Amino acid sequence: MKKHKGSCLCGSVAFEVVGDFDSFFLCHCKHCQKGTGSAHAANAFSSSATLTWLSGEELVKTYKLQNSRHTKSFCSTCGSAMPYLLMEGKLLVVPVGSLDESFSMRPTAHIFNSSKAEWDMDLEKINTFEKLPK
């Protein structure tokens, strides 16, 4: 079984996921845009993997948006997105950016594309830089 380790930006929270992911979605819904401050969330989903908190579990807070299925867990110190369980613990959601090692799974799909930010189009055509441009 594959093991994935992850942590938050400040290093206070660390976790391990053991098992495989079923899917990897880029979600463009308005809730994910607000929650990430970006064009989309990037989450891997598993119905069989297990999550173990290695440190800082008490710092992880979970927010559930009323009248929706939207959930977000985060480090209460630095705000980094953290894993959480949905559907009464049957579905593990892991923000891919929280993983410490490279993640080779390709996204399964873009979802909620009807809410996609209007500036999130043809991004491969804009300039790229290896670091902050001068």
Tell me what you see in this structure.
This protein is mainly beta and 134 residues long. It has one domain: Metal Binding Protein, Guanine Nucleotide Exchange Factor, Chain A (Beta Complex), CATH 2.170.150. 5% of the residues lie in helices and 37% in strands. The chain has one helix and eleven strands. The protein has a five-stranded mixed sheet. A three-stranded antiparallel sheet has the order 1-2-5, with no helix packed on it. A hairpin with a 6-residue loop joins β1 and β2. The radius of gyration is 15 Å and the shape is globular.
What's a quick, concise take on this entry?
This protein is mainly beta and 134 residues long. It has one helix at residues 30-36; strands spanning 3-7, 14-18, 23-27, 41-46, 50-55, 60-64, 71-75, 81-82, 84-86, 91-95, 109-111.
The structure class reads mainly beta
- Kindly give the count of domains: 1
Order of helices and strands: EEEHEEEEEEEE
Strand content is: 35-45%
**Overall helicity:** under 10%
Distance between the termini: 45 Å
Q: What's the story with the biggest beta sheet? A: 5 strands, mixed
Output mean pLDDT: 93
Q: How is the secondary structure organized here?
A:
Layout: E1 3-7, E2 14-18, E3 23-27, H1 30-36, E4 41-46, E5 50-55, E6 60-64, E7 71-75, E8 81-82, E9 84-86, E10 91-95, E11 109-111
Parallel strand pairs: 3-11
Antiparallel strand pairs: 1-2, 2-5, 3-4, 4-10, 6-7, 7-8, 9-10
Keywords, separated by commas or semicolons:
134 residues; mainly beta; Metal Binding Protein, Guanine Nucleotide Exchange Factor, Chain A; five-stranded mixed sheet; three-stranded antiparallel sheet
